[in-house]
Every structure is written in C-alpha cells, then in structure tokens.
Amino acid sequence: MEATSVAIDEGATLSEAARRRGLHGLLVYTFLMVTGFAMLMPLVAVHFVNDLGMAAAAVGLALAVRQLTQQGLALVGGVLSDRYGARRMICLGVLLRAAGFASLAFADALPMLLCAMLLSALGGAMFEAPYQASIAALTDENTRPRYYAISNWISGVATTLGPLLGVALLHYDFRVVCLAAAACFAVNFLVALRLPQVRMPDRPPPLRHGLDLVRGNRAFIVLVGLMMLYWFVAVQINISFPLLAQRLTGTVDSVGVMFALSAGLTVALQYGLVRWLERRWSSAQVLVAGVVVMSLAAGAIGLVRDFAGLLICVGAFSIGALMTRPTQQTLIAGLADPRALGTFLGVSSLSLAVGGGIGNIAGGWMVDLAATKQWPWLPWAVFCVVGLASAFGLHQATRVRRERAPVIAES
Questions:
Q1: What's 47's DSSP letter?
Q2: What DSSP letter does each residue of 286-325 carry, written as one string?
Q3: CATH, domain 16-398, list 1.10.8.60, 3.20.20.150, 1.20.1250.20, 3.40.50.720
Q4: Is 76 exposed, middle or buried (0-12, 13-18, 19+ CB in 10 A)?
Q5: Per-residue pLDDT for 364 more than 60?
Q6: pLDDT one-digit tens code per residue, 211-225
Q7: What are the counts of helices (DSSP H) followed by strands (DSSP E) for the chain?
Q8: pLDDT in tens, 42-86
Q9: What range(s) does the Major facilitator superfamily (MFS) profile domain occupy (predicted)?
Q10: What's the chain's average pLDDT?
Q11: Cα pseudo-dihedral 77, 79, 80, 83, rounded to 10
C-alpha cells in the first residue's frame, strides 16, 4: 500500500469500514454529479445556437470559459483541500455549481451566459481536485484501478440517463433542464456532508513546496502536457458532435440518441473491457490504444454524410474514450506525490483547462468555418491529427514505464 493512510480531523485513522462508506458515498456523488452535468451541458450549444440564434463560435467561447476557469482554478481547490479538508471544499463547490446552473436558466444573451458559466466553473474548481484527492486518499495501488473502473461505469450509466432526461425536459422548457441539473448538485451537498473529512497524516506543505514537488516530477509534467492534446479532441463530444447531429437530422432528439449510444456502450463495456485489457496490457498501453481509436473515429466523421454514419463513428469514439478514462486517472493518481495530493491533482486539471478550452473554441469556430467554406472534412481532420499526435507522444513518454501498478474526470 502507498503511504496514503487516511485520517479524520481529530487525527484518528479511518477504519476499513469507514473507508468503504466513504468510497460508496463518492460513488453516489459521482452518479449525481455526472447526471446533472450530462443532462444540461450537451444541450447548451443546441439551445443557444439554434433557439437563441447565437454563433457557434460564441457559444464555444462560453464553454471554453467554463472549461478554462474550472480546470485553471482547480489548483486553488486542490491547495485549499490540502489545508482545510476535501469535504469542506466539495460542499462549497457543489453549492456554487448549483447556483451557476440555476442562473443559466435565465441567460438570454452572451454576457449572462458567460456569467452563469463562470459561476458554475468556480464551483467545479472548488470540488474537482478535492473529489479526486478523496478517491486517491481512500484507495491504494491495489484497489484504485478497480474503483476507477466501477466509478467510470457509474459515470457511464449517469451519462446515459442525463442526456435522455435533458432532452425529455427540454420539450417543456430549457429552464426546467437547468433547474433539474442544479437540483442534482444541491442533493450532492447533502451527500458530501456525510463524506469522511480526509487529509494526509503529515502537516500539509506550503504552496511553494507543493509546487516544487510538482516541478520536480518530470514524468507527471510530461503526462499532463500530452493530455492537453487528448482533451482537445475529447471535448468535441460536447460541442462539435451535437451540432453535427442536429444539422444532419434537423431535430434535437438526435443529440439524445447520440449520447444514449455513447453512454450505453460505456455502461455495457466500461468495467469488463478495461479490466480485460489491463490484464494483458499496462495502463499506459491501454491509454495510448484508446486515444488512437478516438482519433481515427473523429477523423472518419469527415467522411460521413448521414446520421447513421455519424452514430457508427460516435460508437467507435466512445469505445476509445472508455479505454482512456480510468487509465489516465490511474496513471496521474499514481504519479502524484502523497504529500500534496490536492496540489498535484489540481495541476493535472490544467490539461483539461488548456486542451479542453482550446478544443471548445476551435471546435465551434471550425464548425462555422466548415459550413461557410463548404469544407465538411476540416474539423474532423484536425481532431484526428491532434489526437494521433497525443497518442504518439504518450507512447514515447510511457514506453520505458511499462508497469501494471497504478501510476490519475463535466462534469
């Protein structure tokens, strides 16, 4: 077991039963968090572009602001988690996210959309690193891969239900979708209150020392940098994919179908496929293979001309994505220094902040450009090339570290 024993505020070591209760609580939290995010976020582009007439690039900018703010400030949430405990920061974060999603219900112009996105992003920045640090602290190198596989399977179930609920509620009103998503995070506040207040046994290091630990971990920094390219491609499921689905069919229901297929494959294959692959390959090899599959699937979308073809590509993309989720989480968590878990996992969020932020802006802009120039292949060719570059870099960076021991999500 790694040197990550868990303690409550009073200093007593958590029993195995308390540890298990904490992990079970985090699984419930994961389900509500992903359901709330998935029922709303994929519909933001559809609602503000098609219903309110905003430019896809402008909505992409708003999505990028949320991504950059949340992941860019996740380091702050991680540092505060190291000092004040993960539970407190999670509680604060979910309340801010609930307020942000509720305010999105009343946004009818770009400034209001940006404000709502900033508020929800601030909440995410407060809870994301503490949430991941709690998982890392309550698991060890033997239990972590299995826990991440189960957690990602539950995320798949939530991702299946979320868009279906969102599309169903959208037939009433977009405000209903926003308020229902906000309610998921309000309930999560009650769940978080019952989580153990975990912290590392040693006195948390000062911020500068924590960042020095990060700077001295070259393998961690390289992995975070390469994952920026990965997230550039991965976030297209929330911007480019929904826009193309609706343009091909002319109905928002197709967005729900697309996400139902993606999440259904995750539910069916996530746990079994990843566990089967990890018995044969290292986590790094599974990650590289998943990124390759995602990249080729994204590139193939440039060749399709109907919704059925898009669904085939979405299916392949989803299989690649379910291969990457638990493996990149395991790799990052294992490389993080136990003395500053929150700081390390906050820094790791920069990969999603930068890569996902640029991906959202570029995705919306290239969809508009492709439609204007009649170059339907353009966005998908770019996504393919960037993804393959990420896979090659990950292969080169991890080929010397072929180890099966764990070595680290919109919500």
A1: I
A2: HHHHHHHHHHHHHHHHTT--SHHHHHHHHHHHHHHHHHHH
A3: 1.20.1250.20
A4: middle
A5: yes
A6: 777 777 788 888 888
A7: 16, 0
A8: 788 778 887 777 877 788 788 878 877 887 787 788 778 777 778
A9: 22-399
A10: 81
A11: 150
Give the model's pLDDT for residue 202.
Answer: 52
> Which of 132, 31, 33, 20 has its CA nearest to residue 75?
132
For 351-360, write each residue's pLDDT tens digit. Answer: 877 888 788 7
Looking up tokens 């994204």 gives: 298
pTM: 0.69
Residue 98 confidence (pLDDT): 96
Q: What is the per-residue DSSP string for 217-261?
A: -HHHHHHHHHHHHHHHHHGGGGTHHHHHHHHHHSSTHHHHHHHHH
Average pLDDT rounded to a whole number, residues 90-94: 94
Nearest 5°: phi and psi at 52?
-105, -5
Record the tokens describing residue 36, joined without a space: 């709330």
Closest of 188, 136, 172 to residue 330, by C-alpha: 136
- The candidate with the shortest Cα–Cα distance to 252, out of 48, 22, 26, 13, is 48
The one-letter amino acid at 401: R
Q: Alpha-carbon torsion 275, 277, 280, 283, what sign?
A: negative
Q: Check if the beta carbon of residue 66 is closer than 8 Å to that of residue 121.
A: yes
DSSP-assigned beta bridge partners for residue 199: 7
User: 86 by DSSP, 3-state: which?
Assistant: helix
Return d(Cα 385, Cα 296) in angstroms, integer.
9
**The predicted structure's pLDDT at residue 183:** 96
| Among 295, 203, 201, residue whose Cα is nearest residue 6 | 201
Per the listing, tokens 């979320």 go with 162
Q: 46 - beta bridge partners?
A: none
